[in-house]
Amino acid sequence: MIRRKQWAARAAGYGLHAYISGVMRTTRFAPLPGEQRPWERTDGSFIALTWHGQQMLSIAALRGAPRTSVLVSLHFDGSVIATALAWAGYGTIRGSGTQTRAKIRGKCGIPAFLAMRQALETGTNVLMTADVPKVARVAGKGAVQLARATGRPIFLFAAVTSARIDLDNWDKASLVLPFGRGCVLWSEALTVPGDADAAEIDAISHRITTGLDSLHAEAHRRLRSRT
């Protein structure tokens, strides 16, 4: 049974990789004048954040970036995504956050946090989704605590396309389609002091929530204005 699931995840992951590669080949991403990507304006590694359900074009956002690892869950869909990312040349860190202490061991939250910290400290960027687990469009504290522990900056991004199907599920996911117009926007760097207290962490988490909402709204506005 385990081997059958592993085979299914590998097959589905290859199919997902092939599909996203096709979407990227047929999507017209317009260059933005003066736009600089994080690795062009910071020394060393960084933490990249976007919304859960909006990450299908993350590869487009990170095209040309140095070494990057992506946090993916331990579930079957995480195994599919990990396989697709491996085909695209990205590393993965398995685990996820949780709202309850009782589930943290099963989710491998602590080992994943330690692995992300080590990756950042050794020059590998880390991509995460920002949401509180199972709460759409509300940023959790995990990325902020990771930035505090490592001193590395956080960059928010939106990678969207005009060709998509917006789903009515918990994370308001968008299924990207080929032959659309694409837009990638990055934020300025967010830094977290090493001595940040709980109130500062909450405030930065709120800034991430409003910042990601603003980036996605602006990216969609730019798509609508293009002909």
Give your account of this protein's structure.
- This protein is an alpha/beta fold and 227 residues long.
- The protein is 42% helix and 18% strand.
- It contains seven helices and nine strands.
- It has helices at 2-26, 38-41, 58-61, 76-88, 109-121, 142-150, 198-225, and strands spanning 28-29, 47-50, 68-72, 91-94, 125-129, 154-161, 164-166, 174-176, 181-186.
- The strands form two sheets. It has a seven-stranded mixed beta sheet with strand order 1-9-6-2-5-3-4, with helices on both faces. A two-stranded antiparallel sheet has the order 7-8.
- The longest helix is centred in the C-terminal third of the chain and has 28 residues, at 198-225.
- The model has no long low-confidence stretch (mean pLDDT 91).
Which features does this protein show?
227 residues; alpha/beta; two-stranded antiparallel sheet; 9 strands; globular
